[in-house]
Amino acid sequence: MTGTRHRMRKALLQAVYAWLLETDAPDEVLDTALNEHAVQPDDREYAHRLLTEIIAHRAEADSLLARVLEHWSLDRLGQVEAAVCYLALHELRAGEIPTEVILDEAVRLGKEYAGEESAHFVNGLLDAAAGIVRPDAASLEESP
User: Fold this and answer.
1) Mean pLDDT across the stretch 116-141?
2) pLDDT per residue over 106-119, tens digit each?
3) Beta carbons of 15 and 26 less than 8 angstroms apart
4) Residues near 48 by Cβ (< 8 Å), separated by ≥ 6?
5) Where are the beta strands (DSSP E) in the chain?
6) Rounded CA separation 20/2 (Å)
7) CB-based contacts of 138: which residues, under 8 Å, 6+ apart?
8) Phi-psi region for residue 105, left (φ > 0), alpha (ψ -120 to 50) or beta?
9) What domains, with CATH codes, occur in the chain?
10) Alpha-carbon distance 55 to 133, whole Å?
11) Which among 71, 86, 97, 77 is positioned nearest to 5, based on CA atoms?
């Protein structure tokens, strides 16, 4: 059985992707996806808060992604990968979820929606970004 937070992130990923493509209203996409994935009320509220904050802080996320993209420009980043990164970067900045959980979820979503190669790429980006956003957490996780 897929965990409710994972289902919530899948729904949120769909909404962020729609926002990036400017095809549908992200709130409507999120509501539909939350229903399809049978997400619980508490996680629905969390998803709506995350979506609002992801949209409001895109420039900060873009700046951080530009710092960690090596030999790439931000406009070369695929939309699915970007959506996964925006979601994970916001959760990293929020500080509520452990870094390892965020990275594992991002890799899982990347693999599920864009393939194995994409998951490795997303993992590299987010690992570098986590070192910037949470430098103390990274050093704590590496200590014995």
Assistant:
1) 83
2) 999 999 999 888 88
3) yes
4) 27, 30
5) none
6) 26
7) 99, 130, 131
8) alpha
9) 4-134 (1.10.940.10)
10) 18
11) 97
